[in-house]
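[job 0412] stage=complex_fold ligand=glycine status=START
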Amino acid sequence: MNILVIGSGGREHTFAYKISQSSKVNQLFIAPGNAGTASLGQNLAIDISDFEAVKNVVLKNNIEMVVVGPEAPLVQGIYDYFKNDPELQKVNVVGPSKDAAQLEGSKEFSKIFMEKYNIPTARYQSFTKDTLHQGFEFLETLDSPYVLKADGLAAGKGVLILDSLQEAKDELQEMLENAKFGNASATVVIEEFLKGIELSVFVLTDGKNYKILPSAKDYKRIGEGDVGLNTGGMGAISPVPFADQDFIDKVESRIIIPTVRGLQNDGLDYKGFIFIGLMNVGGYPYVIEYNVRMGDPETEVVLPRIESDLVEIFDAVGTQSLDQKDFIVSDKTATTVMLVSGGYPESYEKGKLISGLEVVKDSLVFHAGTKLDGEDVVTSGGRVMAITSFGETIEEALAKSYDNIANIRFDKMNYRRDIGFDLK
Ligand code: AMP
Ligand code: GLY
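[job 0412] stage=complex_fold status=DONE, emitting structure tokens
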């Protein structure tokens, strides 16, 4: 079978890596891909938000399966575009429909969904410009810190956590009246602050059945000790030691089952990954957010631990027969450390030559922001590559990642030396 992976980050390189291990794959394509995916398949230089361009490459290359990495094409309705086109209808698109993707595309939608199905989450209310003053009053009923969330997609920047009530009121006004996050903050969700430790659990569903994937924790801040600006993610660990069977059982019964049943009940077509961002509050899981895709860099530790044939699993998603598939996950711990461009997540330079990749031993290198410049691999983004390793323990896996990083070089390379610091 010919398969297309959509996206260009470390997540998509990891998908390409797992897919290329399957005996069921004939030709693998990645759009647009990066220098890493180019060694596993053929990169296609198309704009992934141009669905007609996607259609053309799918028909031209007899592609039967499309795995969608990032949220944007899902929220824009790529799944529906395929299902509504007679020439594309039979293609197995791994990803939710446009309506279901609102679980990530709209915070208010996801809160209403959770409320309806009794899924534990922070208490909330949502407001618009016309209800700004009710928003102020609601803030007065809450304790500090205050959590304000732009309803729509805001490139991971739409959540503000503020210590003072006055600051929270000012920011609310900025979001609603001055469009601080553009149209994304025309509606703002205000919610109670949950105190606990964060982790993520991933689910793959065919709309009826589901498989629970390994848990993971990512490190979002740029600075060691979890300080400084938020990034897309500087590293990740899987599994999360405190997410033991008892905790995962609670996640399954209180969150996963009601989520999958709720999607079905609401007629929301969902054949893809659900990324459940959780807060562990005193041993009980609360949903912070849903994403309708895998995480990045969580994918770089979650997928390598899956031992089952991923293409067979995706096939079963398409035919809604996931319940008939075994799903085998390695007991080993996986860690990944992200190498980033100096200056990221603010401005940074691109086009830096990357050296030392040929001596990497006992680790997997997943490219994120790289491209080929002739024979050379050069940087082309803020997050450049993730170095993933396995071990019996977090320490053992991390030691391999850091040993290999010592040999990798590019001008102004930066990374966190303390991934997993809170879990050891
Ligand atoms: P989100 O985009 O919804 O994942 O929010 C971004 C980050 O804000 C999360 O990863 C949490 O660290 C934090 N956060 C969001 N909602 C809450 C909450 N209700 N209580 C505490 N922290 C939160
Ligand atoms: N690492 C967080 C995300 O993918 O949203």
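The chain has a mean pLDDT of 96.
[job 0412] exit 0
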